[in-house]
Structures are given as structure tokens and as C-alpha cells.
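The instructor's notes for this session suggest beginning with a concrete chain rather than abstract definitions. Hand out the sequence below and ask the class to guess, before any prediction is shown, which regions might be ordered.
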Amino acid sequence: MSTLTRTIAAALIASTITTSVAATPIDRAVRQAAPLPADQLAAMKSEASANVDAHAKLVQEMVDSVFSFAEPGFQEFQTMEYLTGILEKNGFKITKSVAGMPSAWTATWGSGGPLIALGSDVDCLLGLSQYPGSPELKPMIEGAPGHGEGHNAGMPLIIAAAIAAKTIMEKNKIPGRLMLWPGIAEELLAAKAFYVKAGLFKGVDATIFTHVSSDFSTGWGDMGNNALVSAEYTFHGKTAHAAGQPWEGRSALDGVEIMDTAWNFRREHLPLSQRSHYVITNGGGQPNVVPDLASVWYYFRDQKFDSVRNLYNLGNEMSEAAAKATGTTVEHRLLGYAAPNYGNKPLAEAAYANIKAVGMPQWSADDQAFTRAVQEANQRPIKPLATTISELSTPENRDRSFGGGSDDIGDIMWNVPTITIRFPSNIPSMIAHNKLAAIAMATPIAHKGAVSGAKAVAMTVLDLMTQPKLVADAKDFFANVQLKDQKYDPVLTPADQPAIHLNRELMDRMRPKLKAFYYDPKKYPTYLDQLGIKYPALGAAK
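After discussion, reveal the predicted structure:
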């Protein structure tokens, strides 16, 4: 027995001991199926890990390619064609334009057994174009989107994990099904609720989601993320000469500004857990024309389903009041939604055992030198790449949440037993949603972290496919613990549709410029080679 196999076997035994949720009557038949012996499963996991290592070059090419495409929400078309092409070549059935979103897709394989969904986000952020591998901030294309959240590494990880699990399942004739799906438009919180609404996850037994980080971890229970409602308010007024006949006009921009002012005064009297922010997306054309059209885009966030709904209702009331005050009219459109995040305990414990078995990537001296150079060049706290995994995050050891970010994986979490695995493809001390977070995302650090994450995901898939008790326990926890006090309660109505128009005009302008920077793995070993950046670069990009 190899060292890795022995490590995995020990983790399997530990995981079995810690997972002790009572069976529901529905799951008894599932539990009666004989699980795979621990030593046999450990050998399969060891083989899956080796398969991921054998695909490390493919992982690097996928991570670098998606980075180079730099596509924001609802415009992930190059990413879709590239990733689905790889999956199709590996025996997956591709379905495009799912849930009414042209850049969304699924890739399915298998028959019988559990249906396990695997996903990660693929979109990038506006205005964060950045040369990878350069400690200094420098855009590749001024004003273009960029992967300042690191979403380029997640689906490559998932694909490598799926290929490895599929290979082992075929070899050992293990029944089961996989469904891969991308988190499109996550930065807009605008897709996963519509996935659920369209029934994409009906029949799914469990979901494994991944998100980039500088640590390697997972957790269960209320993860502290805020629920969110994304809504745009459009005011309609009447044009007039702003100097000659201003009394004839009704300013839509006045409506926007009064709504914003009212909201800012109201903040003093809102719960401490709420977060709310806005941008004026249309403020009129020119100063001497009273604007008859103006829009403002709000994100309302709070910790619970009912509290975020209350914020949304309050925003709607304020918009109507602002319209009455300015003699205008207003309409609002829901652009996105995200439920609170809640991780499944049995799934998290099983995945954590695999994370411990895999361990952190073996960082090189160059990786650590580059990390320090980035931190020093940008006045960030000096913190080396982690060499030990984080502890399992639980309600007992997690700091109390006072509100913060959101992730629409929550919508899937409240419909299917789900966990998020954080994988170590970025460097510590970076600012999220900033060019700093893009610097490492097409370097050996990103590649190594994705490979390690893929191993943990593949192993957890094999757990789910061969251990009926784990699936039953996950469903029991979901039904009897997670849903005990809260139920899925989104603000979406049957009339709400995905906001697929977002970012279209921007990408119509930017895509020709971005194409010149697409990575060509047939000509260059890595994207840094194509860009002429020597790793570890300790100065500016060329």
C-alpha cells in the first residue's frame, strides 16, 4: 500500500467515525447497499490523484486560457466553447444555453447511481485587466475586464476532477452520474437562482462547488455570507431646456438622487448586518437637457431570507416616494439574487478528510519569493504561502458574522446538499475585486492550487459514488437540520428573467482587443511565456 493510499485509508476511517447523522426512512434502502471497503476505496482515490497529476499540463492550459479570455458576466462565450470542447472530447454530453442564459451550459456523463453536480464560477470583473506574473499593477488592456477574483481556476479544477473520477468509475464499473455546470455572472449574483428556478438541480443528490482562495478548506453550517437582491430602478421624466424652460421639465435624475439621498439617511436606522450600495448607471445626456431617463442599480444585502426581502421592499417604497416628490414615474427590475450560504456537515467532513489527505501544494522557493515581491511592491501585509491546511470551519470555531459578501451558490445550497471547497490558487494579503487578486492567477501558484483542489474533489466524488451512507447522511442533515428553521425563500417571481443584456455592449467593444491576448498553448508552454514574463518576475511586466 502506497503512502498516499495509507493516508487516504486513515482519513476514510476518521471520516466514518465523525459522520453520525441518523437515517430517515426514505434513505434506509440507500443505506442498505454495501459500501466499498476502505482499502479498496483508498486505492481508487490514490489512482484518481495520480490521474489529476497526469492532467496537470491540461489544468495549466485551462487556467491560463480562461484567464486570457477575460469575460464578464453573461458574456462567457469563449470560455464556454473552450471548456465544453475539452469535456466533449472526454465523453461528456454538452447542453448549451441552459435556463435561458446563452453562456450557460451543462456537461453530463454516466448512468445509474447518485447524481453529483460539480461547479465553479467562470466570470471576471469589469476594469481589472492586469498582467499576470507582474508584482506591479499594469493593465493588459486599459479599461478591460480581468480576473481580479480568480474565477479562471475553478472550472479547470472541476474538469480535471471529473475526468479523474470518470476514469476510475469506468475502470471499476461504478454506477453514478456527473453534471458539470459553470457559475456564470456570479459577480452580478445573477444566474444560480435562475438555474434553480429552471429546475437544473432537480434529481441532484449532492453538489460540490469550489472557490479560489489562498487557503485549502471547507466548512458546514451558516457560512456568514449575506443574502442579496440586485435591482435596477429606472425613473422616467420629461425633457426641457434646463435654462430656458426648466419648469417644463421633470428630471428623472432628480428621482434617482432623491432616492439615493433618502436611502443614505435611512442607513442610520437599518440593522448593523445590512450592506447596501449603488451605482448610477444612467444620469442623463448633457447638462442643458433635463434628463427624461435615469437609472440607479442597487445591491441590498442582509443575513436572512426575510431581512433581505425587507430591504428590497424598502428600496421599492423609497423609489416610489422619490418619483412622487419629483413628478416622475419609476419602474424596477430584478437583476439578480443570492441566498445565504449554508454548508452540509456530512459532505464537509468527508471532503475535509480528503483535503487533509491531499495536503497543501509543494510551493517552490520561486513561488514564495514571488509572493513576497507582490506583497512588498503593493504595501500589503507580508505573509508567505500557507504550507498547512486550514481547520474545518464549523459554527463552533467560526467567528461571528456581522454581514459582508455574498455568493449565489447559496441558492443551490438551499435546494441540494452542497459544500464549497476553497482551494489555494492565490496568494495571501491581496484585496478582493482588485487587480492585485489577478496577479497570481496565471502563474505556477494558480496551477498548483487547482491541481490540489482537483484531487480533493475527485476523491469526494468517489466517496459519494461508493458510500451510500454518505449520500443518505447528507440528505438527512439537509432535510432535518438545515431546513428546520429556514426554507428557501427567494424574491424571484415567475415574471423575472435573467439579465442577459448586461455587459454585452462592453464586450462588443472589448472582445477584438482581448482576442490579441488569447493564450495559444500550441505555441507557448505557459501564458507567462507568451507574454514574455519570466517567473518569478520581481519587476514590472513587459
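Then share the key points. The chain is about 40% helix and 15% strand. The mean pLDDT is 93.
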